[in-house]
Automatic annotation (TrEMBL), chain B:
Belongs to the thioredoxin family. DsbE subfamily. Residues 33-174 form the Thioredoxin domain. It is found in: Cell envelope. It comes from Candidatus Dactylopiibacterium carminicum. Signal peptide: none annotated. Its main location: other. One of its GO terms (cellular component) is outer membrane-bounded periplasmic space. It comes from the Bacteria. This is DsbE family thiol:disulfide interchange protein. GO terms for biological process: cytochrome complex assembly. InterPro entries: Periplasmic_diS_OxRdtase_DsbE, Redoxin, Thioredoxin-like_sf, Thioredoxin_domain, Thioredoxin_ResA/DsbE_sf. One of its GO terms (molecular function) is disulfide oxidoreductase activity. NCBIfam families: dsbE.
């Protein structure tokens, strides 16, 4: 963040654009700044020099950004790795000592130029597929992936089977219905 | 018809058995993917003497790697069993002193007696990570060719030494 700051301020000087929330925007002396800016050729030249300087300064800035994106990658990766001590937290969430060590390991490996797959392989080699919150589909994890589907399918199957084999009550024929009506009439107080 | 009326009972019993098995499992004990794989290399400073000990130094013999620390409560629990095993002089026991302070570790061994042939210092826990250590104490059986053959997670007891470790150690030493 700090390394970002100085080129950003220089940039605002060069382009005349003020960062959001800065005092320059509301300063009354700056209100006519736009017309002054284009007026003087030397000023123009100076601005060009400043812009060039800015571009030079932007190089370390992009390094700083690389740092930040590395942190973000490490964080994303840490969220996908289970902390084997606490088991229901990722190593990003956990405060366990081992989780801290593994976060350090992830950051170091990414900083050394290794990719996410390499870090994941490193963890699986030591702790097994269990460290992955998104385990790969293979013989050992087949039941894990297909189990819920199988359960659901068998539940639907059982339900369908029940529906088809529902016992049907005996159908009353016309004579029985007439008899029932007569009986009901008998009971009717009206 | 009669058979069908037993179906719910059968389903229930099946489910109960499944859950019962589930209760006896220990989800905290993860199967190590390192079993039957070459033990990860290390070269670590010795705790009590000068110099280092490397994995290669242990080649040619069956040995035990016991991960311990002075801050570890389970280690205190397993210590008597480990001392008794050491007294039998069946195999070298290497202590991996995991993320500990040297002074604390030395004091701990003085107070509780030292079962280890040698202890090495893994101060930042990197070798621990290589061995997939996640809960101290842990104990590995490593064979003469330097392969990990068994891993015990948690405190050892006389019973687990007798039942889990010794048969495997004897088989490896005999072969």
């Amino acid at each position: 963040m700090m390394r970002n700051a100085s080129p950003r301020i220089l940039f605002s000087v060069v382009t005349g654009a003020a960062p959001v929330g800065s005092a320059a925007r509301t300063h009354p002396a700056n209100a006519s700044g736009a017309s002054v800016r284009m007026a003087h050729p030397t000023l123009h030249f100076l601005r060009g020099c400043l812009l060039a300087l800015c571009c030079l300064l932007a190089v370390p800035t992009s390094w700083a950004n690389a740092d930040a994106s590395l942190d973000a990658r490490a964080q994303r990766l840490a969220e996908q790795l289970r902390c084997v001590v606490c088991q229901n937290q990722s190593i990003a969430e956990s405060d366990a000592d081992l989780a801290r060590d593994l976060r350090r390991q992830v950051s170091e490996m990414l900083a050394a130029g290794q990719d996410e797959a390499a870090v994941r392989a490193f963890m699986v080699e030591r702790y097994g597929d269990f460290v992955l919150y998104d385990p790969p589909l293979k013989a050992g994890t087949l039941l894990l992936w297909l189990g819920p589907l199988l359960l659901f399918a068998s539940a639907v199957g059982a339900f369908a089977w029940r529906l088809r084999h529902l016992p049907r009550g005996p159908q009353a024929d016309a004579a029985a219905r007439a008899r029932a009506r007569a009986l009901l009439k008998e009971d009717d107080p009206a | 018809m009669k058979l069908k009326s037993f179906l719910p009972l059968a389903l229930f019993l099946g489910f109960a058995v499944l859950l019962g098995i589930g209760l006896t499992l220990k989800p905290r004990e993860l199967p190590s993917p390192l079993i039957d794989k070459p033990a990860p290399q290390f070269s670590l400073p010795r705790l009590q003497q000068d110099g280092a000990l490397a994995l290669a130094d242990m080649r040619g013999q069956v040995w035990l790697l016991n991960v311990w620390a002075s801050w570890c409560v389970g280690c205190r629990e397993e210590h008597p069993a480990l001392l008794r095993l050491a007294q039998r002089k069946l195999l070298p026991i290497v202590g991996l002193n995991y993320k500990d302070e040297r002074a604390d570790a030395l004091r701990w061994l003085k107070e509780h007696d030292d079962p280890y042939t040698v202890s090495v210092v893994d101060a930042d826990g990197r070798v621990g990570i290589d061995y997939g250590v996640y809960g101290v104490p842990e104990t590995f059986i490593i064979d003469a060719a330097g392969r990990i053959r068994y891993k015990h997670i948690g405190p050892l007891t006389d019973e687990s030494v007798e039942r889990e470790l010794l048969p495997r150690i004897r088989a490896l030493q005999g072969g």
